Amino acid sequence: MKRREFLALLASAAAAWPLAVRAQEAGKVYRVGLLWDSPAMFPSAIEAFRRGLRERGWIEGQNILIEPRWSEGRFDRLQELAEELVRLKVDAIVAPSSIYTGAARQATSTIPIIFVSHTDPIGSGHVASLAGPGGNATGLSLLMTETNAKSLEILREAVPGLSRVAAIFDPATPSHKPGLAALESVGPALGLQVRPVAARSSAEFDGVFSGLARERADPILVLSTPLFIAGAERLAELAIQHRLPSMFGPKEHTEAGGLLSYSPDRADLWRRGAAYVDAVLKGAAPGSLPVQQPTKFELAINLKTAKVLGLTIPPTLLARADEVIE
């Protein structure tokens, strides 16, 4: 659904909310739970979310409170943290991606859940469809399957003579199965063989890269997940150490030393996510709000890393980049 159509839908939904209900809630301070890994992960995205709330009249400490619960890399604690937010009786839960949304849905079937960077909400079973999510969860999708395919195309353009790519994934991330399927589907059309390589924890990073090096490794494409985002610096270091051209999702990986990254603009998604929070706090049923898709994407290239690897990035690719690190 296009952004203009979505805003029109919100406007029509707001007009239908009973005036008595809206008046009754005047003066209430709403509480919104935030279930995520760490405040250090995408700080610009969190600020964009807060800005989006302010643009809609929600002022922290006056009519809204944000209740964060950070897992700090302990994904085994997500269920406990989600249940804690439910006990606090928050009015909505922001659970950015599939892992957090899954924990929130297990904890509650009634409190609205808003995701802002879900990679595959249909494939994970978190919504019935993009147009009609149903249930208590909705938000914005990253379109990982399409983004992965585009990332593979960009990596082939950046590395001359490329024939094979190692796709590093986390088996515990629900969206990685369809993400890998998309890569393996589009690979032959690009003349590329895609080889999946699993990494289940940060403790496995060194072994994974050592194994790739022993096998005269291929360039790597790292699927996006909180585990890999938290380990961005180490993954970039290992890729350079083993002289592996690397393609990542969020641009933070490229800023940490990765060669390339291609992803939807996370800050824009979080800012747009504030519209969903605004809607459900005013009475909209989350299951009636269509899932939106990204409209802005970011291609980042680290030329310092390219120089270390002895690569010359084609001028046509540099011209398309949104950020070039020199």
Attribute tags:
Rossmann fold; 18% strand; 7-stranded mixed beta sheet; 326 residues; alpha/beta; 14 helices
Topology:
Elements: H1 3-16, H2 19-24, E1 30-36, H3 43-55, E2 64-70, H4 78-87, E3 92-94, H5 98-107, E4 113-118, E5 137-141, H6 144-158, E6 164-169, H7 176-186, E7 193-198, H8 205-214, E8 220-222, H9 226-230, H10 232-241, E9 246-248, H11 251-255, E10 260-264, H12 266-281, E11 297-302, H13 303-309, H14 315-320, E12 323-325
Parallel strand pairs: 1-2, 1-3, 3-4, 4-5, 6-7, 6-8, 8-9, 9-10, 11-12
Antiparallel strand pairs: 10-11
What would your notes on this structure say?
By secondary structure, the chain is of the alpha/beta class. The chain folds into two domains: about 5-140 and about 265-295, Rossmann fold (3-Layer(aba) Sandwich), CATH 3.40.50.2300; about 145-265 and about 300-325, Response regulator (Rossmann fold, 3-Layer(aba) Sandwich). Helix content is about 40%, strand content about 20%. The protein has helices at about 5-15, 20-25, 45-55, 80-85, 100-105, 145-160, 175-185, 205-215, 225-230, 230-240, 250-255, 265-280, 305-310, 315-320; strands at about 30-35, 65-70, 90-95, 115-120, 135-140, 165-170, 195-200, 220, 245-250, 260-265, 295-300, 325. The strands form two sheets. The protein has a seven-stranded mixed sheet with strand order 7-6-8-9-10-11-12, with helices on both faces. Helix 7 (about 175-185) links the parallel strand 6 and strand 7 (about 195-200). Helix 3 runs parallel beside helix 12, helix 4 (about 80-85) packs across helix 5 and helix 6 crosses helix 7 (about 175-185). The longest helix is centred in the last third of the chain and has 16 residues, at about 265-280. The two termini are about 35 Å apart. Mean pLDDT is about 90; it is low at about 10-25.
